[in-house]
Amino acid sequence: MANREPASGKLAPEILEKAVLAYGGAKRDEVLVGPAVGEDAAVIRWPAGKYLVVASDPIVGADRGAGRLLVVVNSNDIASKGGDPAFLISTLIFPKGSTPEQITSLVEEIHEGCLEAGIAVVGGHTEINDRYDHPVLCATMMGMAERVLSARDIAPGDAVVMTKHVGIEGMCILANDRRELLQRCLSDQEIDGILQWSDSMDVLPESRILRKWAVFMHDPTEGGFLGGLGEIARLSGLGVSLNRGAVPVDRLTLSCSKCLGFDPLRLISSGVLVAVIPRKFLGEALETLESSGIACSVIGEMVRGEGDVPIETKEELWGLLNEGRSLP
Known about the structure:
The chain is of the alpha+beta class. The protein has 2 domains: about 10-145, CATH 3.30.1330.10; about 150-320, PurM-like C-terminal domain (Phosphoribosyl-aminoimidazole Synthetase, Chain A, domain 2), CATH 3.90.650.10. It has helices spanning about 15-20, 65-80, 100-115, 170-175, 180, 190-195, 205-210, 225-235, 250-260, 280-290, 315-320, and strands at about 10, 30-35, 45, 50-60, 85-95, 120-130, 135-145, 160-165, 215-220, 240, 275, 295-305. The chain has a 5-stranded mixed beta sheet with strand order 1-6-5-7-4, with helices on one face. A 5-stranded antiparallel beta sheet has the order 9-11-8-12-10, sandwiched between helices. Strands 2-3 form a two-stranded antiparallel sheet. Strand 5, helix 3 and strand 6 form a beta-alpha-beta unit. Helix 2 (about 65-80) runs parallel beside helix 3 (about 100-115). The longest helix has 18 residues, at about 100-115. The protein is globular, with a radius of gyration of 21 Å.
């Protein structure tokens, strides 16, 4: 297998079994039929009284650590709906010339991320395709929830709470893939510190705390923190009154934003959980988060009318990833 270059199309069964299917994430009793050559779909026993939560996201802005990030961003979407991620299906398209070892390296990242979170890899598709220069990664995550969180239940006066600090995912991607860009602003030691933020990109711990009180939760990805708030406003038909001074921005993110000229509130922010919580539950929710060691801030409230958060917003990451790459 070491010296063979797979042909275009679906991986050959012997390569698929060794390079991909050997990495199935966690073992779960609900999986009755799992991934195998010749199996068209997984069969999963579903517990009575639970809700099925399903989400799908690609990874398009990251190179290093992309397999683990694929698990986290999809897990976060399930956590944002109050669910526990349980089953993952991945679609992985590799450029021509990819070796079985390169494929396994990425699949193993997915496997390890799933093992840590108790997620079973129950199927997917893996192929070689000469139309792409970089791997195309997409996953669908399924999980179980005990109640439904809906933006229809948001009311004026509800508090808007966020965990951690803005721009976690964006800064991690830049530290991994555009280190030379951040070196204009930070020392190597500070950039290494940003790389450690990837350990805090999972929002499942705070979701498991807040799902008891929140009427709605959201994972602010594309468009960053402001984009996430705008999406909540659009869904609920209400506005968000934002206290910008209460929004946590790490000093390293702030330094880079000033140096490179971007808005940290518009930088992709997986790792942050935004929750809308009725005021009567706010004190208990904040106290529980803080006692669990999870940083949290009340950054605004829901209001009638437009509020002061734009519905439309841009994403800062793409311009930063491309900055200077056209120069000789």
